């Protein structure tokens, strides 16, 4: 098996890759409020409010799905790659992805199980059950996206991470609008 050289952690490369990722994120931060305005106009205030009931629960679940794994990957993988220990780097990668997916699936299942109680007793909107269940299904995808984004940054694949972030941003902005129009 061919051994590649150590990861290039030169300042220029890190700044260049970080620029692409940051530019992509800033672009979609500007587009997200437009999505809210368009959806608010298309759906009306009552239905738009119902669609936003699950958002905080999904965001909390995403945080709990990724409790420090991205930070560990971003710190430990480059260290082991620089030291020539690809085996340790690979083990960190596999363990982080497995635990992230397992926790995301756990939180998704719990949110789906408790969705009727949340929408009935906390939100007082039983008609929000459908959006709550549908939004819960996005948790594993988002958790995997987050862990892979940190891995790509850790191994200095900033342009690839920027492309993944761009695809994710386009889906995040366009998909709700397209679903509303259908």
In short:
By secondary structure, this protein is mostly helical.
Structural summary, described in words:
By secondary structure, the protein is an all-alpha fold. It has one domain (53-180). The chain is built from eight helices and no strands. Helix 5 packs antiparallel against helix 7 and helix 7 (139-154) packs antiparallel against helix 8. The relative contact order is 0.18.
Total beta-strand segments:
0
Shape category: flat
Q: What is the rounded distance between the termini?
A: 51 Å
Largest sheet: none
Mean pLDDT figure: 80
**Secondary-structure element string:** HHHHHHHH
Helix content: over 70%
Contiguous uncertain segments of 5+ residues: none
Q: Return the structural class.
A: mainly alpha
Total domain units? 1
